Amino acid sequence: MKETLNNALLLVLVLGCFACSKPASETKIEYKTEGKDSTPDVSEMRNLGSALPGLDHGLCQSPINIQSSQTGQEGRHLISINYKDEINKIENLGHTVQLDFAEGSSITVDDTTFQFKQFHFHTPSEHEIDGITYPMEMHIVNIMPNDAKNETPQYLVIGILFKEGSTNKFVTDFLDAIPKQESETAELKIGTVRISDLIGTIPSHVIDNYYHYKGSLTTPPYTESVRWYISKHVYEASEEQITTINEIEGNNARHVQGLFGRPVLTN
């Protein structure tokens, strides 16, 4: 019962209750891209969301450069979580490394509930903070259950930034399990990989220290129905861990997009 309660109180969800880390001051990192051409052609640039003619989307696109001095204040969002920390699959999708949640975990923000689906990685980061690009970003993707067909899926995505530093146990636990071949999936024993090893368990009913804005998926079809929560806390992973992921997925960060008047909020 105690363990179940602790899991239900996993409210940081990476967004916080930690003191903000000072942004890294180093310049953008050069990545090893063995077997991958580091200069994208026009087709690849379109897939990465570059500002090229003919992209079929609106003006609420992601990722963005978050200027911390220009964010607005908002009230805290009430969060309740039914999180089992059960991760049962890992996939080498070629363009990213993805881990899947077993069914049954959910997060409710105010009065809207989303189901945990998967998390994946971008190297380097997609979101920038005050113009700084970090070497890696993790996205925890949650989707609103939708019984009505032909309606636009609604997402809540949590962004976690990583800087180079100490070896990260959470990353270590899945790194060797990534399938070697593109499009391959491997089963994971429940409990092998746990997000609580990254963010811990903190008994709070309100997440704190985040940036929030409304945007889009950062991969095709760039659906503009995402509630983004970007953690202010920057986590650490070793250079070797980040490089290993980058060598699998390549430089897969979409370019930052214009805000076009959208507010970026914090608390």
Description:
The protein is an alpha+beta fold. The protein has a single domain, classed as Roll (Carbonic Anhydrase II), CATH 3.10.200.10. The chain is 13% helix and 30% strand. It contains five helices and 15 strands. The protein has helices at residues 2-8, 42-47, 169-175, 196-199, 239-249; strands spanning 65-66, 72-73, 79-82, 87-92, 97-101, 106-109, 112-122, 128-129, 132-133, 136-143, 155-164, 184-187, 210-215, 226-237, 265-266. The two termini are 32 Å apart. Mean pLDDT is 81; it is low at 1-42, 50-54 and 202-206.
Spell out the key features of this protein.
alpha+beta; 267 residues; 15 strands; Carbonic Anhydrase II; twelve-stranded mixed β-sheet; 30% strand
